[in-house]
């Protein structure tokens, strides 16, 4: 299958993130993308293609315009205000009860406070090249969506930065623009293959972490089904949302499906739950399937607590392929550097064995 990749991802290279009470090395390192590329080349895959440019419109269809403007300007404004060159760090977050005052919170002008207005944690660090990187990461997702829309059985967007934690107006969890949501919305809005007026898209999130941004973006919609398997958010990042009783609201009720899982999940247990998730996708009978592909479910991932072995990844790809749907794979997390390439290539090759392109 075709891989879409932009080397402009390397413009985003924060050195530090804040967790466990200190500044530590940033987990979403630029070499993650290179490692996946190398593994795909070793597996005999075709060389990657550069993304096409869809402009800002498909991004603005998912993200708030003021947030997109913030992402574009944040670094310059921060440095202009005397901020450290290492990147933009929020120093305050809106208090929940501020929402009481007319259902909104005030938008500050101070760059460090504006960063808190548009962030939910301290791990989406904005540096000088961040906008360029996230813009092209989203274009990779859109290009892969277009390839599948044009009839390919599958395509892989090697996105970096990742996207599934980003909300319409919030960054966090190494994510700024929600690549999988942008691709899903673009496909759902495509009319050429709509059978009964509406194109349905299933977004299946298999990153270790709950896709809080994707869930929130589609929470009240029935034209995008969101299904996620993840470490239980009562125990694991991103915390606060992703429980099994979150099912969507209004017309979206029943179109959000969460499988929060216990620590130490092994291969057979994971495949059992993934089969349930796939059954829900099949029942929805979508025109397209988008996969938020994270491999931080791997047993030695520094940010996960599952116990999956590398042998599971081709089986995951095969299970997804058995749905028989046009499928867009979007790269999300995975931080066990030594096995990252093997695990990602495993999912894609497992898919291709069932559905060769
Ligand atoms: N002590 C993705 O996989 N920090 N994002 C965790 C653990 C944030 C993960 C801190 C993890 C974000 C796309
Ligand atoms: Zn993750």
The low-confidence runs, each spanning 5 or more residues with pLDDT under 50, are none
Number of helices: 10
Radius of gyration: 19 Å
The termini sit apart by: 6 Å
Give the SSE string: EEEHHHHHEHEHEEHEHEH
Percent of residues in beta strands: 5-15%
Query: How confident overall, as mean pLDDT?
Result: 96
Spatial strand order of the main sheet: 1-4-9-8-5-6-7
Percent helix range: 25-40%
Helix/strand class: alpha/beta
Largest sheet: 7 strands, parallel
Give the bound compounds.
Answer: N-{4-[(3-aminopropyl)amino]butyl}acetamide, zinc ion
Number of strands: 9
Q: Identify the overall geometry.
A: globular
General description of the model:
This protein has helices at residues 31-42, 57-60, 65-80, 111-117, 130-149, 179-189, 212-218, 267-284, 312-321, 337-354; strands at 2-4, 16-19, 22-25, 154-157, 201-205, 224-231, 256-261, 288-293, 327-331. By secondary structure, the chain is of the alpha/beta class. The strands form 2 sheets. A 7-stranded parallel sheet has the order 1-4-9-8-5-6-7, sandwiched between helices. It has a two-stranded antiparallel ribbon with strand order 2-3. The termini are close together. The structure holds N-{4-[(3-aminopropyl)amino]butyl}acetamide (Q9C) and zinc ion (ZN). Residues 207-209, 294, 296, 332-333 line the site of zinc ion. Zinc ion binds next to loops.
């Amino acid at each position: 299958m075709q891989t879409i990749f932009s080397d402009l991802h390397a413009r985003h290279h924060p050195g530090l993130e804040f967790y466990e009470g200190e500044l530590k090395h940033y987990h979403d390192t630029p070499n993650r993308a290179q490692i996946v590329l190398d593994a795909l080349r070793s597996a005999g895959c075709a060389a990657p293609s550069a993304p096409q440019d869809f402009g800002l419109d498909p991004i603005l269809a998912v993200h708030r315009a003021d947030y997109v403007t913030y992402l574009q300007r944040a670094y310059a404004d921060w440095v202009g205000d005397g901020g450290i060159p290492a990147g933009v760090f929020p120093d305050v977050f809106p208090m929940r009860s501020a929402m009481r005052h007319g259902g909104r919170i005030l938008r500050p002008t101070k760059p460090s406070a504006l960063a808190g207005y548009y962030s939910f944690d301290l791990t989406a660090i904005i540096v000088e090249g961040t906008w360029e990187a996230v813009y092209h990461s989203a274009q990779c997702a859109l290009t892969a969506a277009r390839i599948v829309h044009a009839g390919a059985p599958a395509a892989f967007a090697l996105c970096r930065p990742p996207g599934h934690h980003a909300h319409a107006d919030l960054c966090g969890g190494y994510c700024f623009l929600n690549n999988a949501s942008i691709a899903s919305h673009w496909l759902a809005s495509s009319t050429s293959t709509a059978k009964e007026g509406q194109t349905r898209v299933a977004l299946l999130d298999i990153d270790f972490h709950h896709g809080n941004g994707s869930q929130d973006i589609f929470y009240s919609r029935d034209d995008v089904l969101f299904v996620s398997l993840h470490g239980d958010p009562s125990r694991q990042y991103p915390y606060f949302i992703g429980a099994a009783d979150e099912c969507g609201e209004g017309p979206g009720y029943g179109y959000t499906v969460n499988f929060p899982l216990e620590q130490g999940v092994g291969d057979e247990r994971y495949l059992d739950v993934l089969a349930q998730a796939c059954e829900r996708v099949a029942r929805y009978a979508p025109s397209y399937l988008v996969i938020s592909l994270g491999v931080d479910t791997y047993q030695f991932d520094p940010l996960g607590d599952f116990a999956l072995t590398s042998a599971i990844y081709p089986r995951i790809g095969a299970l997804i392929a058995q749905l028989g749907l046009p499928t867009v794979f979007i790269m999300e997390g995975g931080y066990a550097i030594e096995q990252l390439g093997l695990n990602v290539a495993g999912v894609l090759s497992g898919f291709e064995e069932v559905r060769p392109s």
